[in-house]
Design a protein that fits this description.
The protein is built from two helices and seven strands. By secondary structure, it is α/β, with parallel strands linked by helices. The longest helix is centred in the first third of the chain and has 13 residues. The two termini are about 20 Å apart.
């Protein structure tokens, strides 16, 4: 399952708040129409088939076809000159 760092949680909550999304809204991660890239979008609610990740009130919805790709990864966020940037990293194996 995809996990979120504290930075990613804060970024997702901040983006949802700035966009004026309802309490159930968040960021959705899905494959592009060409199925060769991931895209993120702000949505008011998940699709019925989405995997819902609720981490400290930061809601991330992962599309059904994207869920296996993101399994075992961590979403991180950092400030860049262009704004907030997100990155994916493999999760560290548990000792």
């Amino acid at each position: 399952m995809l996990t979120l760092t504290r930075n990613a949680q804060a970024a997702v909550k901040g983006l949802a708040t700035e966009a004026g999304l309802p309490d159930g809204g968040g960021v959705r991660i899905a494959l592009t129409a060409e199925q060769d890239q991931l895209e993120m979008s702000l949505v008011a609610e998940p699709l019925e088939s989405d995997q819902v990740i609720d981490a400290e009130e930061a809601k991330v919805f992962v599309s059904e076809e994207t869920s296996p790709i993101l399994s075992g990864h961590t979403l991180d966020a950092a400030q860049t000159p262009e704004g907030i940037g997100f990155s994916l990293h493999p999760q560290e194996p548990e000792a």
